[in-house]
Specification:
The complex is a heterodimer.
Chain A (H helix, E strand, L loop, with lengths): L1 H25 L8 H13 L5 H9 L17 H23 L12
Chain B lengths: L1 H88 L6 H23 L3 H14 L3 H39 L1
Classes of the chains: A mainly alpha, B mainly alpha.
Chain lengths: 113, 178
Amino acid sequence: MKKHIILIAAMVILLSAVGCREVKTEYSPAANDGSLRNEKESTDAAQKTEPSQTKSDDAKTEPEASAVIISKSDNKLSSEEKEKALDDMSKELDRIIESLNNLDDIEDEDLEF
Amino acid sequence: MKKLIMMLLSTSLLVTGSMAYANDTTADKGKGKLQTRIENRIDKAGDRASEIKPLTDEISLNRNEITALKAEAKTISKEIKEVIKEAKAQKDTLTDEQISRLAESVTALKDEAQKLELHTGEIKDEVALLREARKNKDTDSAKISLQKIIDVQTARIDNISVIIANMKVLLADFNEII
């Protein structure tokens, strides 16, 4: 009975050690089988915009560890809209100066007692 | 007869002398009363002036300060408009975020300017009341109006100072992106 228990325990330990080595091998940069890594890259790429799709395809062929970061331009204002915004700022400044010029005041003669 | 004439002359001398003396005394008394009245009026005017002068002096100082602040605001505004012209030439290089940030700074300026507009005319109203008080020689009302003018001026000085500070920030933001 004791021999059986020892044998089973030894097999469990052996199997655990082998399993760990396999997992380490899968995530090693030198590994040929990069299927798990490519799936991760594809998932990241899918969350990005369309123009990056081709890039993710390229990533599948390249054995790189880090994910490719693609910056997406958020500029939505057209050139004309930017110009209009700047013109509005200029007009607002004119309005402020006009407000300052319109401030009422007291004359010297009103200060004589 | 001679005695009679002497007596008559003496009596007339006495009477005229008394009359002259009486006139002088009355004249002195009248002059004294008038002088006192004049002196009292001068004193009161002096008191009024001494109460009001500090207020009018403060108003003059505030007026000068507001004039200087307005000139400074105009100068900075011109600088900003020059920079806006440069920005328009490079508008394609400006990002939406930069435009948005600049627009926010301008909105803050606009809010301060609206406060100025809200209180425009208040000094003019008080000046009308002040003129009325001066006409009626009502020192108390005059002092109240003068103090109100000072309060409006103080608020304007603070307001315009904030506008200038915001303008400087806007100018710095523009210079940063160009």
